[in-house]
Amino acid sequence: MQRRLFLAAAAGLAAVTQIPFVQAKGKENGAPTRTCSSSGVPSSTKSRFAPLISGKAPGTLLSREEIEVSITGARAWKVRYISKDVNGVLHEVSGLVIAPKAAGINRKLLTWCHGTTGLGDAACPSAQPGPVRDLITYFDAPSTQQIDYGVPGLQSWINDGYVVCASDYQGQGTPGQHQYEVNRTQARDAVYLARVARQMELGAGSKLGCAGWSQGGGAAIAVAELDAADYGDLNLVGSVTMSPVSTAALFDSPSGPSAMGSDPTKPPEIHVAMMLAGLQVANPDILNLSDFFTPLGVEIIETAWNIQPVHHLGDTIDRLCLLKGPVMQAKPANLDRWKEAVAAASAATRKATAPVLLCMDNGVFNPLVWQQDLANKFKTLGGSIQVKHYPNDDHFSLPNSCAPEARTWLNGLF
Question: In a designed cystine with 50, which of 172, 175, 201, 358 is the match (CB 3.0 to 4.6 A)?
């Protein structure tokens, strides 16, 4: 069954839990809006494709609801807002905005990019019990949930006067399937939430810092590579990427899509399977699930994507592959279009507008060569990057270990 390995002992983009859609009344405009809930289970009939949005601009705040917090000296809101994906298609997103209770002006902004949680409503971080907290991972002994959630060092960020934003990403608590590992989509979701926070009379200034881990580490690099229109009046001062994984690194890896046809009787690594589903839902006019997946594989994705967490989905794919046969095509089709989609989606493909701090772990789950390769590509493109190695930390302990240095580094840039 699924061993939670990230490409032959190179794993760990995180885990998820199950959250449904419920109807809630948006406090900004009084209109009904669908939000995450912490009770029940996600819908098994939710469409993978969100309805098109018109008449709204990215960065529009749709609703907000203040929630209780355990962090000292903080207030927090669950929000829904408009962002756009890698192709400029508008979508709804949910997330958290957390701010110091005390009044302030020109506060520093931080936007946090979370790690892997899944493909749908079973992956909504803001729907967890007590979501406004320091990061706890699925593999921590006190963990009671199937998801890594929270922000590493959150209490310290608040103590330093930051307004902290934590996007759920599109499709995780909002319509449609999550575009998993489409770095530029997640980067835009993170930046547009920061623009939303500026509208909430919390004293947030225009200077923005970013931090992200794993899947979110790829997003954090992409945050530094967005278009000027995405930032609006924000000034990105720097971005911290923790054990990052980019779209291209995952696609081109030894266990990635190009290698799947070598032995289709073996189930795909779950993060690779989810990336393929994420790329396809972002590019439905040119990509098909059947380019890579057999009819059985397509059936599994279309049935389980919204209701099963990442490790649950991985175990399902593994078992059904053993029981019923291959889930991946022996000869993938349409590879040129897939490669075009990867190039458009991936981090470390454009010159950055701000410096980056790369915090590397011991490589047990996420190969060091991947992390170093991202740094090399970033520098080749003309970006400024510093690298800090944490040899005593694995993929899951790294964020909490490096959060103090991330905060110190960003504080020096404001």
Answer: 175
pLDDT in tens, 248-267: 999 998 878 866 666 888 99
Q: How far apart are CA 204 and CA 206, in angstroms?
A: 7
Find all residues with CB under 8 Å of 168, minimum gap 6, and list them: 36, 93, 94, 95, 114, 123, 124, 125, 126, 174
Q: Which of 76, 356, 108 is nearest to 211 (CA)?
A: 356
Query: Is-contact 358 371, C-beta < 8 A?
Result: yes
Phi, psi of 190 (to 5 degrees): -70, -45
- Residue 274 is inside which H or E element, if any? helix 270-282
Chain segment 106-130, per-residue pLDDT in tens: 999 999 999 999 999 988 999 889 9
Number of neighbours of residue 337 by Cβ within 10 angstroms: 16
Percentage of the chain lying above the pLDDT 90 cut: 83
- Nearest Cα neighbor of 254 from 95, 161, 373, 152 is 373
Both structure tokens of 232:
């609006």
